[in-house]
Amino acid sequence: MVREVLIKESISIPDGVEVSCEGMRVRVKGPKGEIVRDFSNVRNVKLVVGNGKITVYSFFSNRRIKALTYTMVAHIKNMIEGVTRGYRYKLKIVFSHFPVTVRVEGDRVLIENFLGERSPRIAKIKGNVKVSTKGEDVIIEGVDIEDVAQTAANIEKATKIRELDRRVFNDGIFIYERGYADGE
Known about the structure:
By secondary structure, the protein is an alpha+beta fold. It folds into 2 domains: 4-84, Outer Surface Protein A, domain 3; 87-180, Ribosomal protein L6 (Outer Surface Protein A, domain 3), CATH 3.90.930. It has helices spanning 63-84, 145-158; strands spanning 4-12, 18-22, 25-29, 34-38, 45-50, 53-61, 87-94, 101-105, 108-112, 121-124, 130-134, 137-142, 172-180. The strands form 4 sheets. Strands 11-12-7-13 form a 4-stranded antiparallel sheet, with helices on one face. The protein has a 3-stranded antiparallel sheet with strand order 1-6-5, covered by helices on one side. The chain has a 3-stranded antiparallel sheet with strand order 2-3-4, with helices on one face. The relative contact order is 0.16.
């Protein structure tokens, strides 16, 4: 097995963003909010913050450690992108049989009258995410891409039809757009 002596990846920190690192706990603070992520489960990888960039090192890396190093780099880039631009997912409410109403109540989304059911279907909102409805659209916004995507998946999964023919009953709430909250 071939081991690479040094893997070194640097991520530049944009203006208006503060990155601090206590051990393997990374805190990214920007104009849209703050994200904290703990990488303490990753071994043989070092983080260094300085000179306007964050550098991720790993020494004598095998295939697994190399993959973890680049995964950490991707997570940190997503954190920086989230606090500067934010993330937005758009979902479309589709119904052909019964008019569906969607409302947000606390940390959950209530989907009422789905397929004429009496009790509402419930989807959990994860983390610090803002969910709003506008006509037949459900808009999910936040700084952490994992929380935004998981909330969208929870809403989509709550309207999954199990025992009916999908060709006839194509009702549901479906993700149709992923992007940044600043609209670019």
